Amino acid sequence: MNFLEIQFGIGGTAKTLPADHGYALYSAIKKALQQVETLPQDMPEDVKLCSVPGIPIEKGKIHLHKKSRVRLRCPADQVQTWYRRLQNQELSIQGHKIRLVKPRLMLPEASEALKARMVTFKLEKIDHPELPRYFLESCQKGLDRLEIKGNAVFIPSDADGNLARRTLQVRDKKIVGFSVAIEGLSEADSLKLQWHGLGGRQHFGCGWFYPVKEEDADEI
Questions:
Q1: What domain range includes position 35?
Q2: Which of 28, 66, 111, 113 is 20 to 30 Å from 214 by CA-CA measure?
Q3: Which value, in Å, is the radius of gyration of the alpha carbons in the chain?
Q4: What pTM, to 2 d.p., does this model score?
Q5: Is residue 220 part of a domain?
Q6: Sequence-ordered alpha helix ranges (H) in the chain
Q7: Residues 92 and 120 in one domain
């Protein structure tokens, strides 16, 4: 569980991104990798991506600002590969051109309270009145498999006071999930959860947990 986080600043001409850009970001990075024969042609399973935070400006779009970053977590022995390969790389996110600039390397920070913008599981039904219960049961099973204990696992509310239900478009399929918060974590369990994540689609920004104290007032 020896991992680090690389945070890339965002340059280029784009001032906005699609709000739902997790899959497009992954696809753009995969395309960049395929241009170099000596690199893996896809992102390894143990490399995780976070979607880019921004300020909602209209339906389906976010505005980028100085704290908007592309964040990647990887094993410590892979840091040089990803740091060098992605630095100054231009990516096209559904036609929005960004450049990854001024990378910085971060140690993971343990926190007793973590949050993920979106977690997804393969559930049989997504339009069901008991979906939140099935979803939370899946969260608990995932934590049990990782031997992670917390005193509270819950779906927080969004700005309108509704359960924070999220969607992710992957090709022609819409994936449904929820935001998840976990409190009462030990230092070891906090770092373990940030490394392993929870649920699927982690290359697309899902299952990425961060300390609640991180500013997320502009979270999409």
A1: 3-106
A2: 28
A3: 17
A4: 0.89
A5: no
A6: 22-33, 79-86, 131-145, 187-196
A7: no
